[in-house]
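Q: I'm a student working through a structural biology exercise. My instructor gave each of us a protein and asked us to get a predicted structure, then write a short paragraph describing it. Mine is Methionine aminotransferase. I'm not confident about reading structure output yet, so if you can add a plain explanation after the C-alpha cells, that would really help. Here is the sequence I was given:
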Amino acid sequence: MESKLPDVGTSIFTKMTGLANAHGALNLSQGFPEFDTPTKLKQALAEQTLAGYNQYAPSPGIPALQQEIAALVARRYHQDIDAAAQVTVTAGATEALFVAIQALVREGDEVIVFDPAYDSYRPAVELAGGKTVHIPLNAPDYAIDWTLVSSKVTDKTRAIIINSPHNPSAKTLKQVDLDSLKALLGQHDIYLISDEVYEHITFDGASHLSVLRDPALSERAFVISSFGKTFHCTGWKMGYCVAPPALSSEFRKIHQFVNFSSFTPAQFALAEMLRDAPEHVDELSDFYQQKRDVLVQALAPSRFNILPSEGTYFLLLDYSDISTLDDVTFCQQLVEKSGVAAIPLSVFYENPTQDKIIRLCFAKETDTLIAAAEKLCQL
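A: Happy to help. First, here is the predicted structure for Methionine aminotransferase. I'll explain a few features afterward.
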C-alpha cells in the first residue's frame, strides 16, 4: 500500500523516551509534567463521573465549559466572545490544529510555517492536499523576518501558522510581530492559525500577546489552546478552539467526523475548576518560572551556553563548547553516557540546521531538575 505520509516515521519524542526508559535516564525530553494534576480538578472529575456524566457531550462542548472559556478570554485578553458560536472543545490541541487545517486547506494550497515547528503541522497540511512553506528561524534569537515572510506569500498561500509562546525555542512574539502580521493579513486574503497552548506560561512579568486581544487578527484566525498544558493533565487530551462564528461553523463540520465530542466528565470538571479556582491559571507563570530558574541556576557551572526562555516549559542549551557531534547523535550519547534525555532541535526543521542545540523540559520535580543538571555539569 502506498503511504499517504511516506516521510513520517517514529517521532523523536517516542525514540528519546524509549531510550530514557531503556537506560534508566532522567527524562527531560518529552514535554509532559512529572507532577500531578491539581487535587481539586481530580476530585471534580471523580465527582462528575460518579454523578453520571459519562455519555456524549454536545459536539461543540458542554455550555458550562464554553461559557467558562469565554469568561477566561474576557478576563485575560479583555475581549468578549460568543461562547456558543465561537468556542469548540476538542480532544486536545492537536485535534484542534488538525481540524482547523482541514477546514482551511484545499488541494494545492500553501501554508507558511516557521521552523523549528511542532511536528503535527506539516502532516495535517499534506493530508488536506496542501504544502507547507517553511521559513527557518535562527539561533539564538529565533526572530521572524517579516519582510522574508511577505516575499513567501503567493496566490496559493492560504494560511500562516504561528506559535507563541514557541515550542521549542521558548521565545514569545512581541507587539511588533503582531503588527507586522496584521499588516500582512491586511494585504492578502489569507487566514491565521495561532497555536497558543502555552499561553499561560510566560516569564519575567511579560504578558502573553494572544491573537484574541486584537479584533483585526482574530476575525481571520483559529486560536488553539490546551487544558493539558494549563492543568498538568496532558493524558486527558482536552483542548479547544476559539474562532469567529463563520470559521467555527466550518471547524465544527469537520470536528464532528473526527471526534464528535470530547471527554464528558472532564468537561464538567474543567468548567468547575475554571469557575472556582481561577488562581491556578494566574499563578502558572510564577510556578514555572521558579522551575526554570532552578534549572538555569543548577546549570550555571556547566559548559553549556543557556539560551533565554521567555515562555513554555522548555530551555535550550548550546553544547558547542562540549562536542562537535551533530545534535541527534549528541542526544543519543547523552542518554547512554550521562543518563539524561533531551531533544535535538534539528528535528523541528524541514532542512536541519548545523546548530548544536538541545531542548530540555523543566516541567519536572525540583529534585529531578537538580539531579539532571548535576549530570550535565560533568560534561
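A: Here are two points you could use in your paragraph. The two ends are 46 Å apart (CA to CA). DSSP finds 15 helices and 13 strands in the chain. It's a good idea to check both against the output above yourself.
Q: Great, thank you!
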